[in-house]
Write a structure and sequence with these properties.
7 helices, metal-binding, about 210 residues, disordered C terminus, P-loop_NTPase, 6-stranded mixed β-sheet, alpha/beta, Rossmann fold, binds guanosine-5'-triphosphate
């Protein structure tokens, strides 16, 4: 019997307002980029199936302080977190420490994290060097990516990597879940085989034509 099912992970994007979270997500899911900034209200999400056969639900949070009571409620349900800062905005880089500390207080210990410096296409306006980003990520034990939603640089790679990390961290759970799902589907298939002639018989009896 054909076995088709998805593994679904929830990923959360965090970072200051304007660093480009929504644009990264739109680039990844729709391959589109918008140069205007319409602040996310509260929280939004999009789904995407990755080549590694994992389906991800990506939550795009509002960076604005006033929505943080709402967005913090989602930390607990995330398996992966993408911390985003803007390489042309030094304060957004400094605030990564605050986002990380919020996650430490509210998310499960098993949550997988990566650090992303977005807008790397803006070389002239750069305020945070690649080395500074990489060093901070190393201090937190995270992998680091520089991305551009504008030029589509490293966007798919960063989402795919965090999903891979989540998959590795939950591999045993996923394997045992899929193992029991296989057993269940096999059992149902066997039962179907036994029941099917009976159902056909019944339906033929009820058929009016
Ligand atoms: N040059 C450049 N601009 C970008 C990039 N990503 C986003 N932007 C611009 O940055 C601005 C903010 O982008 P958003 O994606 O709306 O930012 P956000 O982090 O979702 O903001 P909030 O919803 O307020 O938290 C927009 O004007 C985007 O066009 C990028 O990679 N390069």
């Amino acid at each position: 019997m054909a076995k088709q099912y998805d593994v679904l992970f929830r990923l959360l994007m965090l970072g200051d307002s304007g660093v480009g979270k929504t644009c990264m997500l739109r680039r990844f899911t729709e391959n589109e980029f918008d140069s205007s900034h319409i602040s996310t209200i509260g929280i939004d999400f999009k789904m995407k199936t990755l080549e590694i056969e994992v389906r991800v639900q990506i939550w795009d949070t509002a960076g604005q302080e006033r929505y943080q009571t709402i967005t913090k409620q989602y930390y607990r349900r995330a398996q992966g977190i993408i911390f985003v800062y803007d390489v042309t905005n030094q304060p957004s880089f400094q605030h990564v420490a605050k986002w990380v500390s919020d996650v430490d207080q509210n998310a499960p210990d098993t949550v997988q994290r990566i650090l992303v410096g977005n807008k790397c296409d803006e070389e002239l306006g750069r305020q945070v060097t690649r080395e500074q980003g990489s060093k901070l990520a190393e201090n937190y034990g995270m992998e680091f990516f520089e991305t551009s939603a504008s030029t589509n640089s490293c966007i798919t790679e960063s989402y795919t990597r965090v999903a891979q990390l989540v998959l590795q961290a939950h591999k045993r759970d996923v394997d045992s879940l899929l193992g029991s799902l296989d057993d269940y589907l096999d059992k149902v298939a066997l039962e179907d085989d036994r029941v099917l002639p009976h159902i056909i018989g019944d339906s033929q009896k009820n058929c009016a034509c």
